[in-house]
């Protein structure tokens, strides 16, 4: 992933945004897509801004707009007492709640041309505790629901560019005017194709090689994780890539910090590597 981002910066001088902050500035006419409360309302989900009390639980609480990512400000609340306690302890102005959705999450990169979807790529994201993920796996032949297509094309009715959405149980929970920030399913040829599309509005489809992205998370109380890098280096021959991340950057989560990730073609091998790291190196 890091190599692809470096390639983009080196050759195309940030022609299209790779962060939500950049996208917010570049596409002011479409920033409504970042309003998660409005997205929930458009889809008929039970939701409201804080401090309105829900009628049913569980719920999730998130910022209405979050340009940092990484599940910052995420809370799962199971009952009224938990909700009341959270409100008494925290200033949640600018937050909202919505019905808790369970199950696997799908992360979709979409190409828009003149307000119409012309191509998309799908990842299956396996959820873990408190908004973090076990892995993100490329899924071939994924079919985007027509209702989702209609909602997006109504909101972005003349947009040309890229959109990333996150889905649970068929509902959009977040949207971003950029590609997936980890870029891991794309290579240099894909980036060239995307850049050519932005310049000419002509898209050339390039096949995707199936890969899986495995993140490694720690908390503020984790004391030792230096061995992860050495272990990944020892196994680099079976990896597509791996990278150490800055756990202090603002895009990190409130509780869980992504300290490393690795990308691999062999899904089962990746699960074993991840399991070994969590059981022996953290």
What brief labels describe this structure?
D-amino Acid Aminotransferase, Chain A, domain 1; globular; four-stranded antiparallel beta sheet; 3 domains; alpha+beta; eight-stranded antiparallel beta sheet; 12 strands; Dna Ligase, domain 1; 28% strand
* Average pLDDT level: 90
Q: Strand order of the main beta sheet, please?
A: 9-8-5-6-7-10-12-11
Low-confidence stretches: none
- Helix proportion range: 25-40%
Name given to the CATH architecture of the largest domain: 2-Layer Sandwich
SSE string: HHHEEEHEEEEHEEHEHEEH
Radius of gyration over alpha carbons?
Answer: 19 Å
Structural class: alpha+beta
Question: Topology, pairings included?
Answer:
Elements: H1 2-12, H2 20-26, H3 36-42, E1 47-49, E2 59-63, E3 75-77, H4 80-89, E4 95-99, E5 105-113, E6 116-127, E7 133-139, H5 146-155, E8 161-168, E9 171-176, H6 188-200, E10 212-219, H7 227-234, E11 241-244, E12 256-264, H8 267-280
Antiparallel strand pairs: 1-4, 2-3, 2-4, 5-6, 5-8, 6-7, 7-10, 8-9, 10-12, 11-12
Structural write-up:
With 282 residues, the protein is an alpha+beta fold. It has 3 domains: 2-34 and 103-200, D-amino Acid Aminotransferase, Chain A, domain 1 (2-Layer Sandwich); 36-99, 2-Layer Sandwich (Dna Ligase, domain 1), CATH 3.30.1490; 212-280. The protein is built from 8 helices and 12 strands. It has helices spanning 2-12, 20-26, 36-42, 80-89, 146-155, 188-200, 227-234, 267-280; strands at residues 47-49, 59-63, 75-77, 95-99, 105-113, 116-127, 133-139, 161-168, 171-176, 212-219, 241-244, 256-264. The strands form 2 sheets. An 8-stranded antiparallel sheet has the order 9-8-5-6-7-10-12-11. It has a 4-stranded antiparallel sheet with strand order 1-4-2-3, sandwiched between helices. The two termini are 24 Å apart.
């Amino acid at each position: 992933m890091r190599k692809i981002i470096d390639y983009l910066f080196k050759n195309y001088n940030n022609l299209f945004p790779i962060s939500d902050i950049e996208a917010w500035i570049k596409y002011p006419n479409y920033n409504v897509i970042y309003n998660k409360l409005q997205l929930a309302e458009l889809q008929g989900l039970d939701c409201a801004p804080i401090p309105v009390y829900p009628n049913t639980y569980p719920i999730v609480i998130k910022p209405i707009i979050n340009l940092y990512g990484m599940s910052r400000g995420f809370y799962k609340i199971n009952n009224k007492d938990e909700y009341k306690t959270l409100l008494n302890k925290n200033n949640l102005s600018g937050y909202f709640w919505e019905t808790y959705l369970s199950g696997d999450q799908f992360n979709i990169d979409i190409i828009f041309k003149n307000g119409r979807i012309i191509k998309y790529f799908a990842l299956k994201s396996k959820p873990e505790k408190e908004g973090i993920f076990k892995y993100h796996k490329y899924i071939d032949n994924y079919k985007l629901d027509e209702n989702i297509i209609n909602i997006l094309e109504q909101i972005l009715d003349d947009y040309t560019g890229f959109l990333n959405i996150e889905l649970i149980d068929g509902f959009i929970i977040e949207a971003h005017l950029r590609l997936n920030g980890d870029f891991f399913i794309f290579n240099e040829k894909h980036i060239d194709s995307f850049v050519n599309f932005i310049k000419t509005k002509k898209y050339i489809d390039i096949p995707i090689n199936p890969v899986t992205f495995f993140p490694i998370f720690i908390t503020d109380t984790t004391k030792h994780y230096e061995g992860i890098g050495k272990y990944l280096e020892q196994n680099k021959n079976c990896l597509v890539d791996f990278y150490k991340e800055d756990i202090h950057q603002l895009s990190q989560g409130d509780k869980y910090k992504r300290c490393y990730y690795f990308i691999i073609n062999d899904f089962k091998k990746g699960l074993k590597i991840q399991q070994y790291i969590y059981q022996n190196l953290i």
